Amino acid sequence: MSSADDRGDESHKERVDREMLELLNELRVAIPGVQVLFAFLLTVPFAQRFGEASEFQRDMYYVTLIAAAIASGLLIAPAAQHRVLFRQRNKEQLLRRSNRYAFAGVVMLAVAITAAIVLVADFMFGRGQAYVTGAVILALLSWWWVASPLMHRVRTVQEHS
Fold first, then answer.
1. Domains contained in the chain, number
2. Is pLDDT above 80 for 6?
3. 27 and 79 in contact (C-beta within 8 Å)?
4. Does 16 map to a domain?
5. Tens of pLDDT, residues 23-46
6. 140, 110 in Cβ contact below 8 A?
7. Which partner for 133 in 85, 99, 119, 121 could form a disulfide, CB atoms 3.0-4.6 Å apart?
């Protein structure tokens, strides 16, 4: 089965509409994860043992909290902007901007996840293990979410050139 792009019968408007719908559907996957992380982080300072956290752990908590808040804002921005700009007949510009926000949101989510892992690993196992675990998690997320798709994109462009 070929896609509309392969058949060449998809109009510019249809393509932009489809791409916007695809982007919003993709965000529906990421947003709940960042919202759960952010909600959990908002409760942490009220836990009894939070007062025992070291200065490093408090700093990592702050980095995690801010990264999760920024990721939430960036990942929600396309839907919010779509609603504000509804019927303004400039969906392609909105799509380009939303794509940048979504990518930046995923990057900030990776930062938040990594910082949360470092925070918990430091608390449970010590600083050395925290750094190693954080580096491994950041490397895996970077590979899965950015490097591997970019390599595929480059190969695809080269094959079609």
1. 1
2. no
3. yes
4. yes
5. 988 998 889 989 999 999 999 999
6. no
7. 121
